[in-house]
Amino acid sequence: MRLGITVLGAVLCSVIGLTAGVAVMSIDLGAEFMKIAIVKPGVPMEIVTNRESSRKTRTLVAFRDGERQFANQAYTTSVRFPRKAFWYLTHVVGRHFDDPQVQLYKERFPFYDLVKDEERGTVLFRTEDGETTYTPEELLAMILESAREYAEEFGDHPIKDAVITVPAYFNQAERRAVKSAADMIGLNVLQLMSDNAAVALNYGVFRRKNFNSTMQYYIFYDMGATSTVATVVGYQVVKMKEGTRVETNPQVVIKGVGFDRTLGGLDVTLRLRNHLAKLFNEQKKTKNDVFKNERSMAKLLKEADRVKQVLSANQDHYAQVEGLLDENDFRAKVTREDLEELCKDFFPRVIKPIEEALRISEITMGEISEVILMGAATRMPKVQEQLTTFLKSSELGKSINTDESAAMGAVYQAAFLGKGFKVKTFNVKEGNVYPIVVEFEKHRTSEDGSESSKTVKRTLFGRMNPYPQKKVMTFNKHYSDFSFSVGYGDIDFLSDLDKKSFPQLLLSNVSLIGVEDAYQKHKEGAEGKGIKAHFRMDESGILHLDKVESVFEKVGEAAEEKDESAWSKIGSAIGGLFGGSDGKDKEAKVEDSDEDPSSAAAGAASEGDQDAKGQNSSKSESPKSDSESPPKKTEEKSSGKQEDEKPSESTEEATEPPSEQEPKQKEKTDEKTEDKTKEKTKDKKEKESDKKEKKEEKKSKDGEKEKEEKKKDEEPKKPKITTIKEVINSTMDSLDLPNLSKDRMKEAKKILASLKAKDKEKMELEKAKNELEAYIFDSQDKLSQDTYVKCSTESEREELNKLMSEASDWLYEQPDDAKKDVFIKKLKSLKDSLKDVVRRVFELEERPKALEALKSMLNHSFHFLKSVKNLTTTDDPIFTEVEVTTLETLINETSEWRSTNLKEQKKLKDYENPKMLVEDIALKIQALDREVKYLINKAKYWKPKTKPKTDDKKKTNSTDKASNETKSEEAESKTEKTESKTEKAESKTEEAESKTGKAESEPKVDEATTQSSESQEEAPKESKSDKSTKKENKKDKETKDNEEETLQIGGSERIKEEHTEL
Predict the structure, then answer these.
(1) pLDDT band at 998, cuts 50/70/90?
(2) Is 426 part of a structural domain of the chain?
(3) CA gap 311, 337 in Å, rounded
(4) Are 750 and 742 in contact (CB under 8 A)?
(5) What is the distance of C-alpha 421 from the center of its chain?
(6) SS3 of 136, please?
(7) What is residue 717's predicted lDDT score, i.e. its pLDDT?
(8) Which residues contact 401 (CB under 8 A, 6 or more apart)?
(9) How many domains does the structure of the chain reveal?
(10) Which residue blocks in 551-596 are alpha helix, DSSP H?
(11) Is 970 helix (H, G, I), strand (E, B) or coil?
(12) Are strands 161-166 and 24-29 parallel, antiparallel or unpaired?
């Protein structure tokens, strides 16, 4: 039995574990704040609150006294000890040490000790001890880990999958760095979603009925803490293939993006902080300069942020800080005009992201349905004034939650991508912000034998190309090992500061090994179709090189089309897909991959130096036409022989049909000229002619078949083409930002795991201390209460109070690095010393309730026993004598036990150990309840024994038959009487007709009079029949058997009477 229970428990635990893994989360990773959302089975999408019950959490981590701190606790540390807290990490993640954005970060936060990572060339944060350093990825991983802990505590579910939002302007290195941070903590990133796409998805999900097949355009303007992004999106209902069926679902497409990395609320806050610092220095309360004091500047930064928010709703406000510097307080008045004057060069930049987004999307403001605001900085009145002036509109869209919409949109996408959820499809097509090109060397040999090379660029993913998407790059004239580079394309649309963030445009260098060997291997009997590199931009906007392969087409022996197998047809079709053109004019070309149908719908094929506008075609808006494109490619890329043969076949087929129609037309003209009198003879002749014509047609068809077979024998048979693919080994070297090596990644995971273990140990230690302290205070309070005084002696209380005070002193004397086991052991010893008194108090308070319940159970059982004894006197008893005596014995024993123990308990004092325990009373109640329930359940499902049939039933059946026969005879006699009445009525109507004459109008009147007279005569007759039926009904009621049959007979008699009278 115990083994079965343990197995069942293990199964339940495994099921719970499986269902728990279904929960997914989203993290809206902002520079200053992050918002977390969760969705789990049975619970809709919901924003997660942290341990301070706040719906948004600061993106901040601090180290103090060997302990990590997050959220508001870390923010408090950042004000007192700025060097110990690290935030605004999205400025430096995935960037080189010499990047202009890193230098700007140093200017804004000069107290950080930033050093260069010599291995990767990135940034390292050095802590106060001067030895420990952390990469931005490690610090970001700690913040992500805290977000997951908040979500798991909030949802009471372990979480492994998440969708993380990042700014739309994040490049390849930044996106890879964020994903590496998530990998460090074992968080599976379902998608790195751009925050503008997440907001657009959240807006569209709740308005999906408002969209149709016509594209509707919106602008989302997001001004956050550190940057501003304007996005033009289009909503449309499209047909898309899901599995084997085509469904119609809404879709949002990112059409254009404009951004400014340095335009945000933090810039305004820093300017206001510097203004407040100048005001304090002007007050000359101390000789020290406030700009040189890190803690004072951190306090002013906090106050500047508060004042900025107040000035968004008020014209003026006072800034005040207690003990700002040298114990001097600061207080100054700040007006909205002062703030706007400080940011006079800030506000003209507000509209530039919108202009850039409209330019790249090629959409005018007249086509925009609404401009919707996002981000906390859009609450500034001057920002809204600039937007309304540019848009020439007095209303701005404020219909979404600016703080939480990105997190809610991302968690909807997480539920769509995760397992265990079924949500309505809302397709999202994000846009590639930075164009990506492929560079390679093209070698040429001139007539004089000299060789020359030329660098060729081919656009792989143009600007605003939708993704996820796959593309194939084909190199047609490379027969030996070679290399090519992948990098960014034209970035002239960026500002000068952003351009400096791209010291080199190359992303990676790819070297191919084994190209010459592949060509030598298939030198004979095979034609090379080029080297194909398969690229993929995944859902997170990260570029991947999946594989590189060489493709060959081998022409086999000639074979008839009918004899071709299905595999050879598939092979030739695939060969047509991968087969390039003649290769005379193009060295390399880019085409959409045919492996993923959804990728073909995402964007158009790009060839040569085609620009982004040509690539970003309308295919993304009409997936149905895209799904039909691959077969067209196979037709275009089929072999030349097949193309030459197709026109001849079509002409032959066109000359076949006309022979059958000419004889039929002659027959129709002959039929019109003939006379009708000779139709029969003509039909016979026609039948004979039809037979002759059919014979002739068969002969002609047989002849045509023979001719066709002869032509086919004369024509050249189609060749059998097979496609051969050889995988080419490739090595990729990252040039923009090297990824963390396996050793460093392993070391980073080890560091994070040790820090997490320390945090857990610290939490458990604090919990043990708190429990011990709470127990000491609670016990000291209880020992003075009346119940505890009754249940203990004076000496016991004195001893216990002394013990508690000593434990309290001991607790505060313990060092900070004490182990938790010491406090747990101390708590256990205190509970053991107090358990006797606690038990007496419990018995004193709970014993009366238990005795009352026992008394009620005894009364219930006694009355039930009486009813059981009455049921056992029948011939077929429900309960046996053994069952009845068992219950009676149990009731008597329990009653006797209660009376004896109750007398003994009354003799004892309250401070003495009790004789009658609540636990024993509960066992007695349980025994009685179990026995009574057994008997009740037996009575519920008991069935009496069936008795044999007697002769009485036969007698009743015979009497019923006799009564039914007599009633049927009476009904027949009544029908005869009614027939005689109808004959008399007919004779009277004939006499009336003879008297009136033969006028046409009079018969109607006579009919009416006869009908009325008949009704007058029949009225009393009907009343007599009603009386007779009532008598019969009374007789029927007297007989108890076959009541339903008699009622049916009575009803049938009435129907017969009415029918005969009519």
Answers:
(1) very low
(2) yes
(3) 10
(4) no
(5) 6
(6) helix
(7) 60
(8) 408
(9) 6
(10) 566-578
(11) helix
(12) parallel
> What amino acid is encoded at 955 in this protein?
K
Q: Is the pLDDT of residue 802 over 70?
A: yes
Q: Which two tokens stand for residue 42?
A: 């049975």
Cα 435 from chain centroid (whole Å): 30
Phi, psi for residue 842 in degrees, rounded to 5: -60, -45
Query: How far is Cα of residue 525 from the mean position of the Cα atoms in its chain?
Result: 53
| Residue position matching structure tokens 């004490």 | 818
Q: What amino acid is encoded at 270 in this protein?
A: L
Instruction: Give the type of residue at 305.
Output: D
Q: Does residue 9 lie within any of the structural domains? A: no
- Structure tokens belonging to residue 223: 């001004």
Domain that holds residue 890: 843-940
CATH of the domain at 273: 3.90.640.10
Assess whether 222 and 288 both reside in one domain.
Answer: no
How far apart (Å, rounded) are the C-alpha atoms in residues 285 and 296? Answer: 14
Q: Residue 73: name the closest of 861, 762, 733, 761 by CA.
A: 762
Q: State whether 320 and 400 are in the same domain.
A: no
Kindly state whether residues 251 and 309 are assigned to the same domain.
no
Domain identity same for 229 and 89: yes
Token pair for 243: 């599995």
What pLDDT is recorded for position 614?
39
**Spatial distance between the Cα atoms of 624 and 262, rounded to a whole number of angstroms:** 42
DSSP string, 305-328: HHHHHHHTT-SEEEEEEEEEETTE
**Token representation of residue 548:** 């590189």
Distances (CA, A) of 1016 to 990, 1009, 1057: 18, 10, 17
DSSP for 685-740 reads HHHHHHHHHHHHHHHHHHHHHHHHHHHHHHSPPPEEEEEEEEEPEEEEEESSSPPP
Query: Buried b / exposed e across 97-106, counting CB within 10 Å, b at 16+?
Result: bebbbbebbe
State the first-to-last Cα distance of the chain, in angstroms, to the nearest integer: 82
Q: Are 526 and 553 in contact (CB under 8 A)?
A: yes
Name the CA radius of gyration of the chain, rounded. 48
Give 82's DSSP letter. Answer: G
Q: Does 462 share its domain with 591?
A: yes
In this structure, the answer to whether residues 253 and 302 fall within a common structural domain is no
| Domain end call among 940, 962, 986 | 940
**Boundary (domain end) residue, out of 784, 813, 834:** 834
Element (H, E) at 485: strand 483-488
Say whether both 119 and 241 belong to one domain.
yes
CA distance 302 to 82: 12
One-letter amino acid at 1002 equals: E
Among the ranges given (210-214, 236-240, 615-619), the one the predictor scored with the smallest mean pLDDT: 615-619
Rounded to 5°, angle at Cα 693 from 690 and 694: 85
Tell me whether residue 1029 is exposed, middle or buried, using C-beta atoms within 10 angstroms of its C-beta: 0 to 12, 13 to 18, 19 or more: middle
* Band of residue 939 on the pLDDT scale cut at 50, 70, 90: confident
Q: Please, which residues have CB within 8 angstroms of residue 584's CB and are 6 or more apart in sequence?
A: none
Residues 407 and 485 in one domain: no
The 8-class DSSP code of residue 908 comes to S
Say yes or no to pLDDT of 672 above 50: no
CB 110, CB 270: distance < 8 Å: no
Buried b (16+ CB within 10 A) or exposed e, 814-824: eeeeeebeebe
Residue 189's CB is within 10 A of a number of other CB atoms, namely 19
Residue 680 within any structural domain of the chain: no
Token pair for residue 940?
Answer: 């519920």
Average pLDDT value for the chain: 78
pLDDT tens sequence across 427-475: 999 999 999 999 998 877 777 767 777 888 999 999 999 999 999 999 9
Read off the tokens for 490: 């034209």
For residue 319, being part of any structural domain is answered with yes
Token output for 852: 């009352």
* Residue 894 and residue 932 in contact, taking contact as beta carbons nearer than 8 Å: no
Bond preceding residue 468 cis, omega within 30 of 0: yes
Are the C-beta atoms of 533 and 548 separated by less than 8 Å?
A: yes
Three-class secondary structure of residue 597 per DSSP: helix
Q: Side by side, which strands form the sheet with 60-64?
A: 67-70, 60-64, 85-87
